[in-house]
Amino acid sequence: MDLRLTPEETAFRDELRAWLAANAPEDWPAWREKPLEDSYPYLRAWQRKLHDGRWAAVSWPKEYGGRSATLMEQSIFWEEMARVEAPPMANSLGLGLIGPTIIACGTEAQKERFIPKILSAEEIWCQGFSEPNAGSDLAGLQTEAKLDGDHYIVNGQKVWTSYGWVGDWCELIVRTDSTAAKHKGLTALLVDMRSPGVEVRPLRQMTGESEFNELFFRDVKVPVENVLGKVNDGWNVAMSTLMYERGSYGARLQLTFNRYISRLIELARSTVRNGRPASEDPIIRQKLAQCSAEIEIMRFNQMRAFSRITATGVPGPEGSIQKIFWSELNQRLQQVAQELLGSYGQLLAGDPHAIDNGLWSYGYLRTRGNTIEAGTSEVQRNIIGHFVLGLPRSY
Amino acid sequence: MQFGLSESQEFLKDSARKFFAGECPSAEVRRLMETETAYDAALWAKLTEQGYTGIIFSEEYGGVGLGKVELMLLMEEAGRALLPGPFFSTVVLAGSIIDAVAGAAHKAKYLAPICRGQARATVAILESNASWNLSDIQLTAANNKLTGEKLFVSDAAIADFLIVVARNGVFVVDSKAPGLKISAMSAMDLTRKLYVVEFKDAPAEHLGPTTNLQRAFDIAGAALAAELVGGMQRTLDLSVEYAKTRKQFGKPIGMFQAVQHQCADMYLETESSRSAVYYAGWALEENAPDAATAVSIAKMYASDAGRTVGNRGIQIHGGMGFTWENDIHLYYRRAKASENAFGDATFHRERIATLVIDAPATAQPAR
Q1: Quick check: B264 contacting A, CB < 8 Å?
Q2: pLDDT tens, B156-175?
Q3: Whole-model pTM?
Q4: Which residues from chain B sit within 8 angstroms of residue A326, using beta carbons?
Q5: Tell me, what's the ipTM?
Q6: What does A98-116 look like in DSSP terms, one character per residue?
Q7: Partner A, chain B 107-146, Cβ-Cβ below 8 Å
Q8: Which of A5, A215, A385, B8 could be joined to A391 by an S-S link, Cβ 3.0–4.6 Å?
Q9: Residue range A219-252, pLDDT digits in tens
Q10: Cβ distance of B279 and A390 shorter than 8 Å
Q11: A7-119: which CATH topology?
Q12: Nearest in space to A58 (alpha carbons), one of A114, A13, A113
């Protein structure tokens, strides 16, 4: 056990720091407040710049434009990005989930066709997995694709699609064999979102915004060369994508949470409670300390998981621990913020009395989604029960 | 950066597990807990042979000179086996205090016999206010004599000497000294006995000032958290095993999500405690600037998790979990004692608040 950076990790960090010092934009905080539609060209330009410096996908193999970065280096990458408050990248699903899946499961022709434009943010990717009747039971999805000569005809509906409104391409999971067992009749398709018959509708969520979309497919033609992986092997392709989703997110969140807790401590110092600063109130102190400690434990868990994955070579079901930990911690943190802010906690963005322009009322509502998206807490606990502890399957 | 255990650390942990499984099985724990002191001389000799009694101390005093991470691993395995007797009191607590506050002559006199397995010792800290805050200690030595009372002193009846934390320093009192009276307290954890120690003009040798005491307390607190992790792991293993074999409604109860999710939470709490404990061990070893915070994070989290993992484990065992014959309550009892010792979660949250809210500069992560 040695938590100091190795010489290679130090070199990686220093090179990145120098690059960010020269290239990271300083005007992002002003853009952050605006709707994503308005800031999207800005984020594309930022990703393009990162790509020019070969920083857009550090985890990817060198031959595909990455740096073959180790998990620790990836963790350093996100830490440094957060340290300078760098903007996120426009094509985050393409870079984080779909690109790695294409590299792992795709044909040479697909890699050549799609990978460069994922990196440069010329083509934005979205993910068509969940359906109105297939959420946790993803394998029960009904969107069907029928082979018709040299292409498939796709019909069905997807929901909770991030970046659907701006997506050029979609990793779509469809049913290609309705007679097979439900996990065995699925196929992953790479679908051009501009194909005739694709309709994108905004899905308004409980926060009032529309981060997600609904996708409708009516007789959409997809050429057979756009099958990702093998026909009827779509379940494994989807699982490989979801593994990336659960594995890497924690490292980025660590820094967001640190920013939250620092801000809450600051607010506690300036909020008066029972005639003294809330930061001197024993109960508030207990709650802030609990959150602060849990944020650190999330970091320790992440580092331990990274070391284990580095040793074994594969991300395992331990990602489920991280998913439960960060999502439930985020909810507890938002509740502490609400208790600290009292009546101010309910004020929305734009209200002149709102603290941090409504960040905390938004967070309170938005974090309810955290224990649902990317695999509900119930599904994560099933995964731990069955795959980690070896308990019999419950369903 | 590498948060996994090194090969030699894995080896130590593995051999400790095998050692305790062989020398201290459940039947032996139950035999010892029914005795007056829970101490067994033969077992102590074997602990000494393994080098465990000198694990973190300098070779100069007969120790093995390993680090704090190694201590955490040993304590985790001792906790898994519910090792009864004065190992924590003697080696981890008394040993660390002598190491932190005493000069070379005193170390040769008191630490060396501990390392060599020749002496048992303990530390008297708490008074009638039962406060873990050092500034609440009232007992004061006068002319190298002590008069007063200490409570909750672990393993005092088999200690050869007692280290006494007083307002004006740290002292050693020989167990055969005049004016010393030791009487048993009746407490939940049967494997680590507690005593009242009364001093009436008892002669005391000054060991050192209290200035470096906190460092030893931090080692002890982290080690107790490590021991809690071992207890949690054992409770989890027993519960998962039970959930796989116990059948109701024609199915193993582990097939029901209400049971599975309890097990998943036990796993999450156990692993998170373990991460915090290993980090604390590393931070202590490296004298990292956030070492004190790291210890409080580990002790805070493990204190709460030790209890909740126990709660869940007993619940999963149903009626069996409520019986005397099932081992799970033995771990539950130990967990309650360790939860309070060296500060419970509330105590450590306040300490974290002091370190993080009141003086943010000291709480930065090591990197």
Answers
A1: yes
A2: 999 999 999 999 999 999 99
A3: 0.95
A4: none
A5: 0.95
A6: IHHHHHHH--HHHHHHHHH
A7: none
A8: A385
A9: 999 999 999 999 999 999 988 777 766 555 666 7
A10: no
A11: Butyryl-Coa Dehydrogenase, subunit A; domain 1 (1.10.540)
A12: A13
